[in-house]
Design a protein that fits this description.
The complex is a heterodimer of chains A (about 800) and B (about 325). With about 800 residues, chain A is of the alpha+beta class. Helices cover about 25% and strands about 25% of the residues of chain A. Chain A folds into six domains: about 70 residues, 2-Layer Sandwich (Phenylalanyl-tRNA Synthetase, Chain B, domain 1), CATH 3.30.56; about 110 residues, Beta Barrel (OB fold (Dihydrolipoamide Acetyltransferase, E2P)); about 240 residues, Phenylalanyl-tRNA Synthetase, Chain B, domain 3 (3-Layer(bba) Sandwich); about 55 residues, 2-Layer Sandwich (Phenylalanyl-tRNA Synthetase, Chain B, domain 1); about 200 residues, BirA Bifunctional Protein, domain 2, CATH 3.30.930.10; about 50 residues. Chain A contains 23 helices and 36 strands. A seven-stranded mixed sheet of chain A has the order 25-28-29-33-32-31-30, with helices on both faces. Chain A has a five-stranded antiparallel sheet with strand order 5-4-3-6-9, with no helix packed on it. In chain B, helix 1 packs antiparallel against helix 2. Chain B folds into two domains: about 55 residues; about 230 residues, Bira Bifunctional Protein, Domain 2 (BirA Bifunctional Protein, domain 2). Chain B is about 35% helix and about 20% strand. The chains are: A alpha+beta (about 800), B alpha+beta (about 325).
Chain lengths: ~800, ~325
């Protein structure tokens, strides 16, 4: 959303001492995130109001030779191609050397010069609305109301164009529908400055800005609005054949639906450039036609979107004598052609406005083609309503409609002002239309909200020392009514504040408006907390493996179905993400190692000749079921993979050495036995070259080489092995702080056993002989063609 | 082997049968073609499976109880200088250490959670548009990989109630991995880390929250910092704020160069109530912010994508 600063200042008396920069900082600190500021201070430099004193057609061209009065003594000569240039008119002159405003933000702004056209010297140019960046109109040059300006006046001064436009982050105002209109925004800004918004009584709404006067006055302000009765205009209340009937099928989808019926009594000629044109343009909209401009302007002003139906088309579509408006949910299969010519298929969540039973508009989002207004429109049904933000939010997503109107509706516009805004609009259009009917359906009027809070509660939660008067004043500045009695505040919430329900909401208002930056940071003093054992374990694993040359990596928790298949895991055991970003991220992984194999390929290709990678992260499998909270059982798993491009030895033993070292440093006794386990994490491992890691009689993971098929799928070199410890929580229960330290003198002897038995079996026999000794492996030798091996040990005795 | 031969024979038979398609009436050909093709695909799939299985059949077993291969050297570890901790994890340790020394317990967040903890327990109205702002992923079962560590607030509030009763205070931080369905670029990752803080006592206030946060950031960046706030909106805190720090001078910051570090606020009474804490007796504040950004700032990194790249040339720098 864009906020035009000069427009804002019409409602807020900004003290001299507050610079624009400071004002923007305060808005950022106390109201909303300001994403950017568009500086238009110099956009209209050297652009003047001039009078065309003489205009002569240049024969055989479409051009006119003009002598213009720009306030100086001499007339200037300008060649103009526009059909509407004529003697005596006030026009806008872009002087030589000035930049065409519409091109200011382009890479190469267009600088107007002095040049010859058809042999005639032309100084600068007379500008059209498009060149001035006030919409797309290129049919002629802009004309200025002679009541509003004199030749020689700067355009920027007449129309207040030396401006800054704030770009507001809409998300930070999700809960503040009122701030999506200038009045609501200004009320807040005034409150931040410690004042009330400029109260200018009801100024016959904006008629001023339509007629073209250049220094318009603000319209309807908060006080006037809240006190004016929510009733239809006089004409509406009379019994009249133009009264539409309104049926809201469910007040849950539409809390209030108001309409005013207008009849055309004359052309609303748009002769002069208006201040409203400039405001619409600066706010990011375009002047289009009097009716559309009036609805857009009021939406920007009040936050309440309006929609105009062609009355005659409306009753024709519904085949009724007078308008029968029905607000209901769409039925499956219904279709609607929107104003932008797109046909959409409605779903049962969409709210539609119907003429009789025929949908003619997608409520809150966009009008329908069949009832749109055009240049032949005689009578208008002006809709001002509020719809369920929940439905509209789904509609927005389903049909991809992101209009200014739906942006406001999805914040939950309050129903209190629908009829007032419709009335304002009727009044703005009174030059060409008169009110001949109307209706207002408001089944369950909103009840006033009163919140009780004490000064102490406010100060206690904020850590401040504000007194009753300051708090009361601050709240009243933004429209709350406060009754105070001995520190007890009874706060009456204005009807536009849909977000205030409890005392904490009031405390937020006080803290925010008076500035959180004014709260003194203090530090509650504490001792040190207990350490988290699992985190300490992770830290220890990380330190140990890194110390022995391994690299910790992080990989995504989501993997592709293909990756699971490559690793030999069952896709059905993985939780599936239904709205994944890509097929690569569709399943929640069951173990860490497959992700590491994937990254091993990337690194081996780089090439990194040798590496060991590990990751500690959470994994999930559907087979593990749910925990007490009815969410899936989670396991923190440690995966490890090592790979080398050129090595003919058996990778298994290096991986095992890492696993053994890690457990030794954690002081956990471990045994490696031939694989029998059936863990998900074990699937990629080759059973005859893999060991189960046994701790306290329980298998906590596997270490081994990978199946040839797996290695092939991941395109990795043969020297490849790894391990996975599935649930490192189990390590915690087996860790011991007691460490036997042996030191002093010892003797060593080496022993070689010739045997056909396995290492473990042989070791047992050696241990039986040397019960107190530390026995370490030295080597395994097997001569070619022999069945027996020579197992060598080093025996250390204290 | 025998099995593959048989399958290949069958494929031949099917191909021969397929040739008969020309003998059939035109209107029957489509259906016949479909059936034959289905059979062919089935057999081809089985051949592929059998071939894959064959790869894994004739593997030489090893003695997994031994410590080296036969006639091989004893394996050795890679040199220490090759090793590294992941920068995010190492910094997360620092973050937790700082909070722990300030008196906060550390509880880690889950990585697969449910709608209740993601939204309901945090006072998000059902179907509220604010739920959209989090771009959550969902599983077929409706589970949610958390989009913020605030999913843990409710758990922590319940888990530490006894401590709250006994000591009058609850102070916990929750580091965790979070997920958002958004396109990845230099400053956005769908997977990243956050740290949540939760503090409850009878007399806590916003000044204390700002004090704790300033203390944390000054400890983390090891220097005095200027802080600033701006209003925010979260359904689970009231009031809600964004917390900013002035970019530290040592990291190239200029005066007035403020960075949004986290969202924070006083815990909404409904959130306390849902966790069984009486909001009339206790107040709390909570905050949550990204760790990736913190670390990127500290090391002057410009691309968040390196963190999950598994690129060892990057990781070995740490």
């Amino acid at each position: 959303m864009k906020i035009v600063l000069n427009w804002l200042k019409k409602y807020v008396a900004v003290p001299e001492s507050v610079s624009d920069e400071e004002l923007i900082r305060l808005i950022g600190a106390r109201l909303v995130e300001v994403e950017g500021v568009i500086d238009e201070t110099h956009k209209y430099d050297n652009i003047y109001i001039v009078r065309v004193e003489k205009a002569e057609k240049i024969p055989e061209t479409h051009l006119t030779l003009c002598q213009i009065n720009s306030g100086g003594d001499d007339l200037m000569q300008v060649v103009c191609g526009a059909p509407n240039v004529r003697e005596g008119m006030l026009a806008v002159w872009i002087a030589p050397g000035a930049i065409v405003p519409a091109s200011v933000h382009e890479d190469a702004p267009f600088v107007i010069g002095k040049r010859k056209m058809q042999g005639y010297e032309s100084n600068g140019m007379l500008a059209g609305a498009d060149e001035l960046d006030f919409g797309d109109d290129h049919s002629g040059i802009v004309e200025i109301d002679p009541e509003a300006a004199q030749p020689g006046d700067l355009l920027a001064e007449v129309f207040d164009l030396k401006d800054l436009v704030l770009e507001i982050e809409n998300k930070s105002l999700t809960h503040r529908p009122d701030c999506f209109g200038m009045i609501g925004f200004a009320r807040e800004v005034a409150g931040i400055l410690g004042e009330r918004m400029v109260d200018d009584e009801m100024m016959g709404p904006v008629a001023h800005s339509l007629s073209g006067a250049a220094s318009p006055r603000p319209v309807v302000t908060s006080e006037a609005r809240s006190s004016s009765p929510c009733q239809a205009p006089e004409a509406i209340r009379k019994n009249n054949e133009f009264h539409p009937s309104i049926i809201i099928s469910d007040s849950g989808i539409c809390s209030r639906y108001s309409v005013v019926v207008l009849e055309k009594h004359g052309e609303m000629e748009k002769k002069y450039l208006t201040w409203m044109d400039t405001v619409l343009s600066k706010s990011g909209m375009k002047p289009i036609s009097p009716v559309v401009d009036a609805t857009n302007y009021l939406m920007l002003l009040t936050g309440q979107p309006l929609h105009a139906f062609d009355y005659d088309k409306f009753i024709e579509v519904g085949k009724t004598e007078r308008p029968e408006i029905v607000v209901r949910l769409a039925r499956k299969g219904e279709k609607l052609v929107l104003l932008d010519d797109k046909e959409i298929e409605l779903n049962e969540n969409d709210i539609v406005i119907c003429s009789g039973d025929v949908p003619v508009a997608l409520a809150g989002a966009m009008g329908g083609k069949t009832t749109g207004i055009d240049e032949n429109t005689r009578n208008i049904i002006l809709e001002s309503a509020t719809f369920s933000l929940f439905n509209l939010r789904k509609t927005q997503m389903a049909h991809g409609i992101f209009t200014e109107a739906i942006t406001r509706f999805t914040k939950g516009q309050p129903p209190y002002q629908t009829m007032m805004v419709a009335k304002d609009c009727a009044e703005m259009l009174s030059g060409g239309f008169k009110v001949i009917g109307g209706a207002d359906e408001y089944p369950n009027p909103e009840q006033p909200i009163v919140v009780k809070v004490t000064t102490d509660e406010i100060n206690q939660l904020l850590g401040t020392d504000y007194d009753d008067t300051k708090i009361g004043q601050t709240l009243e500045n933004v429209g709350f009514q406060v009754k105070e009695k001995g520190g007890q505040l009874e706060v009456h919430v204005p009807e536009w504040r849909t977000d205030i329900h409890i005392k904490e909401d009031i405390i937020e208002e006080v803290g925010r408006l008076l500035g959180y930056d004014n709260i003194e940071p203090t530090l509650p003093l504490h001792g040190t907390a207990e350490k988290n054992r699992l985190l300490e374990l992770k830290k220890q694993i990380r330190r140990t493996l890194a110390r022995y040359g391994a690299n910790e990596v992080l990989t995504y928790s989501f993997v592709s179905g293909r990756l699971l298949e490559k690793a030999g895991q069952d896709v059905k055991k993985s939780y599936k993400i239904i709205n994944s970003i890509s097929p690569d991220l569709q399943y929640v992984r069951q173990s860490i190692v497959p992700s590491l194999l994937d990254k091993a390929y990337v690194n081996q290709k780089m090439p990194v000749d040798k590496f060991a990678m590990f990751e500690i992260n959470e994994v999930y499998s559907k087979t593990w079921g749910m925990n007490d909270e009815n969410v899936p059982v989670a396991k923190v798993s440690l995966g490890f993979v090592l790979a080398e491009r050129k090595n003919n030895e058996t990778a298994f033993y290096k991986a095992k050495k890492y696993a053994a070292k890690l457990l030794q440093e954690l002081n956990i006794p471990v045994e490696f036995v031939p694989k029998q386990s059936k863990l998900e994490a074990g699937e990629p491992f080759e059973p005859v070259r893999t060991a189960d890691i046994m701790v306290g009689g329980q298998c906590i993971g596997v270490v081994g080489e990978f199946k040839n098929s797996v290695r092939n799928e991941f395109k990795l070199a043969p020297y490849l092995a790894g391990f996975e410890i599935v649930d490192i929580d189990t390590l915690l229960t087996n860790m011991s702080d007691v460490r036997k330290i042996k030191f002093g003198s010892y003797k060593t002897e080496d022993l070689t056993v010739t045997t056909e038995k396995s290492y473990a079996e042989t070791l047992k026999e050696v241990q039986a002989k040397y019960p107190e000794a530390e026995i370490m492996p030295l080597s395994i030798y097997q001569a070619l063609g022999q069945k027996t091996k020579n197992l060598s040990f080093r025996i250390k005795t204290w | 082997m025998v099995e593959i031969e048989q399958l290949k024979q069958e494929l031949k038979r099917i191909n021969a049968e397929a040739a008969r398609i020309r003998e059939l009436a035109v209107e029957k050909r489509a259906e016949f073609g479909r059936q034959i093709n289905a059979k062919r695909q089935e057999v081809l799939k089985n051949i592929a499976l059998a071939e894959k299985a064959l790869l894994d059949v004739e593997v030489e077993p090893i003695d997994v109880t031994a410590w080296s291969g036969i006639n091989e050297k004893m394996p050795e570890f890679y040199p220490t200088e090759m090793g590294s901790s992941h920068p995010l994890m190492a910094e997360m340790e620092r973050v937790c250490d700082i909070y722990q020394r300030m008196g906060f317990d550390v509880v880690e967040a889950r990585q697969l959670d449910d709608e209740f903890h993601m939204f309901d327990a945090l006072n998000f109205p059902k179907e509220h548009p604010a739920r959209d702002g989090y771009d959550t992923f969902r599983t077929e079962e409706g589970l949610i990989p958390p989009a913020h560590t605030s999913t843990m607030q409710h758990r922590v509030l319940k888990q530490y109630q006894k401590q709250l009763d006994e000591t009058g205070r609850l102070a916990v931080v929750v580091p965790g991995r979070v997920y958002r369905n958004e396109d990845v670029d230099a400053t956005h990752e769908h997977t990243f880390y956050q740290c949540e803080g939760v503090y409850v006592s009878k007399d806590c206030n916003m000044g204390q929250m700002l004090g704790i946060l300033r203390e944390f950031f000054e400890k983390y960046y090891e220097q005095k910092l200027n802080i600033r706030t701006q209003p925010g909106y979260f359904p689970f805190t009231e009031p809600s704020l964004e917390f900013l720090i002035e970019k530290p001078k040592s990291l190239g910051g200029k005066k007035g160069d403020y960075l949004e570090m986290l969202g924070c606020g006083m815990i909404h009474p409904n959130v306390l109530k849902m966790a069984g804490i009486d909001p009339n007796e206790y107040h709390g504040f909570a905050w949550g912010g990204g760790i990736d950004r913190l670390v990127m700032l500290r090391f002057g990194l410009s691309d968040v994508r390196y963190f999950e790249s598994g690129n060892l040339n990057f990781l070995r720098e740490f």
